[in-house]
Amino acid sequence: MKSSFTVGHLFGIPVKIHVSLLIILPFFAWAFGSNIIYLTENTDIARRQLLLNPYLLGFIMAVILFISILLHELAHSLVARTKDVETTDITLMLFGGLANIEEISKDPKDEMKIAASGPLTSLAIGVISYFVGTFAPNFILEDLRLVIVYTGQLNIFLAIFNLLPAFPSDGGRILRALIAQRTSFRRATEIASRVGKVFAWVFGIFGFISGNFLLVFIAFFIYIGASQEHQFSNIKSALSNLKVKDLMTREVKTVPANMSVHRLIEKMFNDKHSGFPVFRDDKVVGIVTMEDAQKIPQDEYSNTPVQAIMNQEIHSVKADDELYEAFKLLFQKDIGRLLVMEDNELKGIITRSDVMTGIRVRELENINGAEAE
Predict the structure, then answer these.
(1) Is the pTM of the predicted complex or chain greater than 0.85?
(2) Could you tell me whether strands 255-256 and 96-101 are parallel, antiparallel, or unpaired per DSSP bridges?
(3) Residue ranges at the known binding site
(4) What string of H, E and C letters represents the secondary structure of 261-286?
(5) Are 309 and 295 in contact (CB under 8 A)?
(6) DSSP summary character for residue 90
(7) Domains (ranges, CATH) in the chain?
(8) ∠231-233-91 over CA atoms, to 5°?
(9) Other CB atoms within 10 Å distance of the CB of residue 267
(10) Residue 363's Cα: distance from chain center in Å?
(11) 177-187, pLDDT tens digit by residue?
(12) Active-site pick, 41, 73, 102, 363
C-alpha cells in the first residue's frame, strides 16, 4: 500500500497527500471547532453572530491551513526552478508539507533565496488576510471574516516558526547558507545542525517542565531533522567523486517474464538475491523482488508467472551518474536496487548494499588518512 497519492499538479509539479494528513485533518478540525469561543475573543466577532456549526468552521480552517502550507512549499519549488533546481513533488503530511527538491543549490545565496521564499510567502498571505479580515465591510458574513482573520494569524505563525534557525525548518537552511559563505558546506551543515539540536533541547526541557507535550513532540521532530541533515551531509561528502560505475555489478542476473513464481523463489535461494530485472523479448519490462512474491498465496506460486507480480515502474541511473544521486533515489523511492541503463540497454545494477560499501570504504580511508597525519 502506498503511503501517499497524487491529487493533482501545480505548475507541472505533482501534489501528493500522505495518509497521515487524512488522520490529522479531523483532529485539527475538532481542535479549531472546540476553540471557536477563544478564537472569537481575539477578534471583535461575537460568538452569537456566527451562523455555521463550530466544527464545520473548524474543518474549513483546517483545510485552509494545509492550502496555506501548500502555497508555502510551492514558493520554494518555483524559486528553486529559477535556479535550475527541479522539484520532484510536493507532499502534504502530518508535520505540514515537504517540497521534494532534487538537489541543494551549490551557491549558498541561491539556497538562502529558496529557503526564504516559503516564510516570506506565508508572511505575505498572513498580513494580507489579517488586514482584509479586520477591515472587511459590515455586509461580509462574520463566519467568513473569522476564517480570513484566523488564516492570517496562522500564516504569520507559520512564517515565524519556519524562520527558527533549526533544521529541518527553513531558518536552519538560511543559517547554513549564511555560514557556508565563510566556510565549507559540510562544516556549515554541522554548525547549523548543532544549533538545531540546541533549540530541540530547549523546547524539550521547557515542554516537559510546563507539561506541554506538543512542544516535546516538536523538539523531538527538530532533533531528528537536524541529525538527518548532518548525516546526509556526511554521506554526500563520503560519496563525492564516486560514480555509479565504480560500484555497480556489471554481470546482472535476470529472469524471464514467463518464469513461474515457484522457480523465481528457487532462483532467489540459489543465487542469494532478493530481486531481479525481468526480461521479455530482450527488453527490461520490470523488476521483481521477494516482497512481490509474498503478495500471493504460496499455493499459487507454480501457476503464477513473474510478469503478474513484477513492478513495471523501473527506476534507473546511468553509469556516469554521481553515486550520491543513486543514494538519494534509493532513499526517496524506498527501494533496494537501481538498474543502470544506457540507451534502454541494461548495463548493470546497483543496490543499497553497494552504496553502503562505498560509504564504509570512504570512512575507513578518512580514518587511515587522519592516522597517517
Answers:
(1) no
(2) unpaired
(3) 72, 76, 170
(4) HHHHHHHHHHHCCCEEEEEECCEEEE
(5) yes
(6) E
(7) 4-238 (no CATH), 244-360 (3.10.580.10)
(8) 80
(9) 15
(10) 27
(11) 999 888 888 88
(12) 73
Write the CB contacts of 346 (distance below 8 Å, at least 6 apart in sequence): 252, 254, 277, 284, 339, 340
The span from the CA of 294 to the CA of 278, in Å, is 17
With 0-12 / 13-18 / 19 or more C-beta atoms within 10 angstroms meaning exposed / middle / buried, residue 10 is middle
245 Cβ contact list (under 8 Å, min separation 6): 319, 320, 340, 348
State yes or no: is 73 an active-site residue.
yes
Backbone angles phi, psi at 277, to 5 degrees: -65, 145
Q: Which residues are annotated as a binding site for Zn(2+)?
A: 72, 76, 170
Rounded CA gap, 164 and 28, in Å? 23
Per-residue cell: 54: 463550530
Model confidence at 366, in pLDDT bands (50, 70, 90)? Answer: low
Position 159 pLDDT exceeds 70:
yes
pLDDT tens per residue across span 225-248: 888 888 877 777 777 788 898 888
State residue 72's pLDDT score.
94
- Span 2-52, pLDDT tens digits: 677 888 899 988 998 888 888 888 888 888 878 777 767 666 665 567 777
